[in-house]
Amino acid sequence: MAHVSWDHNPPTTWTAMVDGQAICSVKRKDIGGWTAAWEDERLWPAPAHLPKAMPQPMRFFSSLEEAQAAVEQALSA
Predict the structure, then answer these.
(1) d(Cα 35, Cα 47) in Å, to the nearest integer?
(2) What is the Cα–Cα distance from 1 to 64, expressed in whole angstroms?
(3) What angle do CA 15, 18, 20 make, to 5 degrees?
(4) Separation of alpha carbons 4 and 8, rounded Å
């Protein structure tokens, strides 16, 4: 399991770091909510309510905590 640390670039960006390497950026959106975008070739799976959707490198979350938890969970798999 990878140890994830978070680097904060105020006011709107958090970066997930593993062994000193940026893995994912979580950014606050002006319209509300947060997006998590992988820095490498990883993709977020399609949401369950859109089973035919293609996996995407970015995913929307309603809160920072939800986004950070999803990133940490994806990296622990």
Answers:
(1) 14
(2) 22
(3) 85
(4) 13
Per domain, the residue ranges of the chain are 2-74
Q: How does pLDDT run along the chain (77 residues), one tens digit per residue?
A: 568 999 998 889 999 999 989 999 999 999 999 999 999 999 999 888 988 999 999 999 999 999 999 999 999 87
Q: What's the pTM value of the predicted model, to 2 decimals?
A: 0.88
Please check whether residue 75 is in contact with residue 16, taking contact to mean a CB–CB distance below 8 angstroms: yes
| Proportion of the chain in helix, strand, coil states, percent, rounded to 5 | 15, 40, 45
The helix or strand, by DSSP H or E, that contains position 28, with its residue range, turns out to be: strand 21-28
Structure-token pair, residue 66: 């939800």
Residues in the chain, total: 77
